[in-house]
From TrEMBL, chain A:
Keywords: Mitochondrion, Ribonucleoprotein, Ribosomal protein, Transit peptide. Gene3D superfamilies: 2.30.30.790. This is Large ribosomal subunit protein bL19m. It comes from Frieseomelitta varia. GO terms for cellular component: mitochondrial large ribosomal subunit.
TrEMBL record, chain B:
GO terms for biological process: translation. The lineage of its organism: Eukaryota, Metazoa, Ecdysozoa, Arthropoda, Hexapoda. InterPro entries: Ribosomal_bL17, Ribosomal_bL17_sf. Belongs to the bacterial ribosomal protein bL17 family. Keywords: Ribonucleoprotein, Ribosomal protein. GO terms for molecular function: structural constituent of ribosome. One of its GO terms (cellular component) is mitochondrial large ribosomal subunit. This is Large ribosomal subunit protein bL17m. PANTHER family: LARGE RIBOSOMAL SUBUNIT PROTEIN BL17M, RIBOSOMAL PROTEIN L17. Gene3D superfamilies: Ribosomal protein L17 (3.90.1030.10).
């Protein structure tokens, strides 16, 4: 895991090298304030803007369902209510216009700054890997996991909680599974991430999939992982009785159950309706977010350059 | 409140889908339920119109619609769709029928591909409601029959006459108001 992340860092640095070279130009008028130089670079250097656009690309309507899954309502018709869904969507957009919520997936590493009345300075920052995303609408939440003082710690945050002050996606990637709850029964090194991690530059348009396979601790476990058909786990060793039971409880026909898949999802036409409703606002926010991110990257490059020189 | 699953995109079905699946009594549980539906689905694609118990017909209807919509969406070159067709259709020559006959037939449909009729329980009958499930655009005469003597019913004759009289009066009025 650490090896993979190290490789990743090096790759990111290599890719950023050319951006650094371009970043030298504004240094000629170095007496200007930092922010102003950034604006100047944005206006003057078309080539730089292009390279940055390649680095950071806003999602198209086609993959909105992957980027903003919480905008889709619960498919269970018992919980459907078109007016409530619409109102919730408006509230979510309002919250997003105040707090920039980055694109992230299960397996991404996030840093959340949370206002906590009992913490020193009344602010608490938690860094961890996202192991679960659940719920929809205003109640959608995510679960972060990290190791603190040799103890696995999980914190569940509501995505639209007003007490959240900042969310940063430190490393954007996916894993092979939809839930990484098995990290609870894996060695702690696989869920350990440094609290002083910095944001890594996004290299490709498509989100990279980290196909790491994780070994599990010996029994006992918190769940019967052998029954869940996990892809991101090295071969699971259990006794014969448990193997037989898992084989008996397997449901290989479930993937053919057409109506089950239909009842668990929102049809494409309905998704298009929902996302065309929020498209303009989300796109606006996306552009703002990209500009901020670009500025942040430039600032970091410049500061690192001054440190080295 | 659960999140909708997003990895597979599906087309919307054009009939009122029930909120819960029926269990379809059998000894094997959910696997047996699919086996029963598989039989009915194959029969529907083969004969295009069948009569059966209502619950099973209604349950099968969704699967037929979904299979056809998947075939319309992805075509025969798509591996997953072919696997689905192989699983659901028990007679293999009917897989060809699905992709070569049914897909072109339903290409431009804006309504559902199947139709479900309530069928009569013929005396002495049995406890279960009966139904007729058919694929639209089949070669058989329609199930719903209109009364061929509708226009000979007394109230329809009277209504027709009244309409005619009203129209004639209107024409007269228009003719009177015309100035050349």
């Amino acid at each position: 895991m650490t090896m993979v992340s190290r490789l990743w860092c090096r790759k990111a640095r290599q890719n950023l090298a050319f951006a650094k070279v371009l970043g030298k130009e504004p240094k000629t008028f170095s007496t200007l304030v930092q922010l102003k130089t950034d604006e100047a670079t944005d206006n003057n250097n078309d080539s730089q803007a292009q390279t940055n656009d390649e680095l950071i690309k806003s999602p198209s309507l086609g993959n909105y369902r992957l980027v903003y899954p919480e905008f889709l309502p619960d498919p269970n018709p018992l919980y459907r209510n078109s007016i409530r869904e619409k109102l919730e969507r408006m509230d979510m957009l309002n919250r997003r216009s105040v707090l920039s919520i980055p694109e992230f997936y299960v397996g991404s590493i996030l840093a959340v700054t949370y206002s906590d009345p009992h913490a020193v300075g009344k602010i608490n920052k938690f860094v961890g890997i996202c192991i679960l995303r659940e719920g929809c609408g205003l109640r959608s939440s995510f679960l972060l996991r990290n190791v603190v003082n040799g103890e696995g710690v999980e914190v569940r945050y509501d995505l639209y909680d007003p007490a959240i002050q900042n969310i940063d996606c430190l490393r954007l990637e996916k894993r092979l599974d939809d839930e990484l709850l098995y990290l609870r029964d894996a060695p702690l090194e696989y869920s350990t991430f440094p609290f002083d991690m910095e944001i890594e530059a996004k290299i490709s348009e498509s989100v990279p999939v980290n196909d790491i396979k994780i070994p599990l601790n010996p029994l006992p476990w918190s769940q019967r992982w052998e029954r869940l058909n996990l892809k991101g786990v090295k071969e699971i060793v259990v006794n014969e009785r448990r193997q037989k039971k898992a084989a008996a409880l397997a449901k290989p026909w479930e993937k053919y159950d057409l109506m089950k898949t239909y009842r668990e999802t929102i049809p494409e036409e309905e998704q298009n309706e929902i996302f065309s409703d929020v498209y303009t606002k989300l796109n606006e926010l996306e552009i703002q977010k990209n500009i901020l991110k670009r500025k942040y990257m430039l600032q970091r490059q410049n500061s690192s350059k001054t440190r080295t020189s | 409140m659960n999140q909708a699953k997003i990895e597979k995109l599906v087309s919307r079905l054009r009939y009122n889908v029930g909120s819960k699946p029926r269990k379809l009594k059998n000894v094997d549980g959910p696997e047996g339920r699919l086996r029963k539906i598989k039989k009915t689905l194959t029969a529907v694609i083969k004969y295009e119109r069948i009569e059966l118990n209502y619950a099973r017909a209604d349950e099968t209807r969704g699967y037929v619609e979904r299979l056809i919509s998947e075939a319309l969406r992805h075509g025969p070159e798509h591996g997953e769709t072919m696997e689905l067709a192989n699983f659901w259709i028990k007679e293999k020559q009917l897989v060809h029928k699905l992709f070569k006959v049914l897909v072109p037939r339903y290409q431009n449909y804006t309504t559902s591909f199947t139709k479900l009729h309530n069928a009569p329980c013929i005396y002495p009958g049995y406890a279960y409601k009966r139904a007729i499930l058919e694929l639209k655009g089949n070669i058989y005469p329609t199930v719903e029959q209109s009364n061929p003597h509708q226009h000979n019913l007394l109230h329809n004759i009277l209504l027709d006459a009244a309409r005619k009289e009203y129209r004639m009066e209107k024409y007269k009025e228009i003719a009177a108001n015309m100035n050349f």
